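DATA SHEET
Item: assembly model
Revision: 1
Owner: S.N.
Input lines:
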Amino acid sequence: MSKAFASQADLADKKITFQQLSPHCWAYTAEGDPNSGVIIGEKFIMVSDCTATPAMARDLIARIREVSDKPIKYVLLTHYHAVRVLGASAYFAEGASEIIASQGTYELIVERGKEDMQSEMERFPRLFRNAESVPGLTWPTLVIAGGDPMRGEAPGKLVVDLGGVKVQIWSPGPGHTRGDTIAWVEEEKVLFSGDLVEFEAGVYTGDAQLEEWPATLQALRALGAEAIVPGRGEAMRGAADVNRALDYTQLWVETLYRCGKEAAAANMDLKAAMAHTRKSMDPIFGQVFIYEHCLPFDVSRAFDEARGIKNPRIWTAERDQDMWTALQA
Ligand SMILES: [Zn+2]
């Protein structure tokens, strides 16, 4: 790439926090890097999102082993993005036998998983520092049937009993991608949202369904969660702080998409759409983690969706470069 994306120069290690939120639920967070959730039952453990590489996953496994020796039987992929799924193979040595994803996520891996892996590896050299430990794409072994909301299908729901704690898994609606799932531990009111919710970090929307995302956030709000592990940013405890994270994400999505629609209505080009969007986004979000990284992809998608492109165009390493060139022109 002729000129670096913001994330390619972002090489400083993050401080990792592994904290208990409720009797069975834990958050593994890293200052704006992709988070994971851990649910520890009396028989089995589930990990929700499994880091970018097996080498990174081994750090998360080491934290888990400080508090439990149960098998990590289940790995949940909240969606298909490489930074969250390519660490999955590390869990096979820890007893993992089920990799869970929605039908929508499975279809996205088939359609664009390879391209996504390649472009994300180039975008995030820090997260893919040990890329040679990735054996290839991560394929789910347990696909939650049906439930592509873009086709008006009712969402399938999976309930996994880990022993003394049950995890509900389903797709609450389109948003960050068209296949996002959440994990919900109702008895403890803990929500593992994946990238549908972020807090004080960039909200990547390069593959998003921006029009529908606010309604999906409303569905999450209706759960009445008392703790949340967002996709990026610190874990939040207490209903008020959970709502702060939902509000933060909603404001990002709505502001971005409004700007995209204004840019499309005014027949701007991508570079002008970017400048127009910055006027609204920079003052509110300019200081958060990976803001500068997310913005070009976000503006591209908002501009596309506003111009009627319903299915997000596939990002490839070449398209990343083309976009960068268009913004520099
Ligand atoms: Zn994502």
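QC remark: Residues 79, 81, 176, 195, 204 surround zinc ion (CB under 6 Å).
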